[in-house]
Amino acid sequence: MILDHSSHPHHRGKLSDSTQTIEMNNPTCGDVIELELIVKDDIITDIAFSGSGCSISTASASMMTDAVVGKPVSEAEHLAVIFAQMVQGNEIPEKDEEALGDAAMLSGVAKFPARIKCSTLAWKALGKALTNEQGKAREGQFHKD
């Protein structure tokens, strides 16, 4: 499933009328993501990503877009938090694992610490895009966590 999401990513592309955008990178490996969202009435109505990254980064971005499109912002933010906990090896409730959808398959990343940043890049971009008051990341804002 991870290879399928990497080879045929869902929601890859650009949005012409995004309300939130952010570009982030993982300086340790060179993964780059530009994430665009349309948020209306506190619901993520559409999402797209572009950029370049390893198979884990691309698959995770694809899985993340599937998990959050159509969801309220608060639920998407919660999913980003629990995803980060999961890939760091922490147990998460079964209902949260189910809510992650295909992204729950990335729990094994916890065994490979060097890949955790690859898997969380899109999710961190999502969190930052949703919490930025103006819907735009400041210029030069990159993945540092």
TrEMBL record:
It comes from the Bacteria. GO terms for biological process: iron-sulfur cluster assembly. It holds the Pfam family NifU_N. GO terms for molecular function: iron ion binding; iron-sulfur cluster binding. InterPro entries: NIF_FeS_clus_asmbl_NifU_N. Residues 2-118 form the NIF system FeS cluster assembly NifU N-terminal domain. Residues 1-23 are annotated as: Disordered. Belongs to the NifU family. PANTHER family: IRON-SULFUR CLUSTER ASSEMBLY ENZYME NIFU HOMOLOG. This is NifU family SUF system FeS assembly protein.
